[in-house]
Design brief:
Blueprint lengths: L1 H9 L5 E4 L4 H9 L2 E4 L12 E3 L8 H8 L4 E3 H11 L1 E6 L4 H14 L5 E8 L4 E4 L5 E5 L14 E4 L14 H13 L6 E5 L3 H6 L6 E6 L7 E9 L2 E8 L2 E8 L4 H16 L4 H8 L10 E6 L2 E6 L4 H12 L4 E6 L4 H6 L1 H5 L7 E4 L16 H11 L4 E3 L3 H11 L4 E6 L5 H10 L1
Amino acid sequence: MSAIARVMLEMGYKITGSDVASQELTEKLAAKGAKIYIGHTAEQVHGADLVVYSTALPKDNVERVEAEHLNIPILHRSQMLARLLNERKGVAVAGAHGKTTTSSMIALVMEECGIDPTYIIGGEIMNVGTNAKAGKGDFVVAEADESDGSFLQYHPWLGIVTNIEADHLENYDGDFEKLKKAYVQFLNQIREDGTAVVCADDDNIQAIIPGIRCQVATYGIDAKDAEYTATDLALGDRQVSFTMNHKGEPLGTVQLSVPGRHNVYNAMATVISCLKAGISFEQIAGAISKFHGAKRRFQVLGEKDDILIIDDYAHHPTEIEATISAAKATGKRIIAVFQPQRYSRTFFLLDAFSRAFGDADEVIITDIYSPAGEKQIEGVHSAKLVELIVQNSNSGARYLPTKEDVLADLKQRIKPGTLVLTMGAGDIWKVGYQLAKEL
């Protein structure tokens, strides 16, 4: 929402908006000229030509009700984004994991190479300190969200799918096949002159490739028959390098300033997308080496006296495993702090979560962070998750209910040689920030 508001501001529109609390993003919008209201009242939509809302806003919200009463056009966030993305050469990044990092990488490379893209991203690009910009070039780079099916609003020039996993099934009648069909529909909405860029190492993507009607570019590390492959991987402490190949022929070396095998995949999708946009491999390789990550994506919060504090948005079992694996390259003792998000996700993925922490030296699980309005599911509790983690992957798992409990515990016990890794889509990042501040 904030990214769309920022782009519309930069395009010259008058923007007002409301949120339940002031935060850094609302303050940045206000500084750019937006009128920000804290709290929701009917009068705040008076005079608007268009009202845009997010999935988080219920139908009985007073501002939505008032807009309907006044016959003001109302659009979902994805419909507003579609208006921007579908008008130009849209680059839409979909997938269970890696959307924010991949779209951030693409936006940064295009920016560095003088293409001047518009970009609308769910996380802040660390290099530029923002998550959105209204560019004057032909390209619009954005995340395409499968969680609520809103990615079906888009008709992009490039459609990227990083991976497909059984998440957000509460929005697909609990049926993974329906989610996979939605991905096929998304890719079949790509423009005639466009391309689907998909990861061939993902079994679920392999299964849907026969149903994709447009041109397809595949990439992978293990799938040797992929059009683009990565070889000579060197996974280091907060860095990685690899050779990018096209149809078996090396294009050159890619050096990244972010860690982990998962970022090799993100970088491959970026390289392919930017090659399709007409940028040379040499330019891409030079620009991507400057990428320092997106906010809350393996973000270093503090480092002192051989103690390292890192925060990550990882909220799915696969992401947790990838993040802990990247952390191991530091050589430090890893204390993984995880805050589950949503009762529904925890319910569907309980067993997978329980097997995701094997590479950590110690695990702390907090209470489930649940959005307002979500109903608790009987038997789904963090204490139960800890029991299963102890059984299935890590005997050093403990349950500490609150952020305050975690902070007090860590302050007493961390010592040189430790990496504290906070993970989750809720507000667990506050523990990492406070700990780094006190260090």
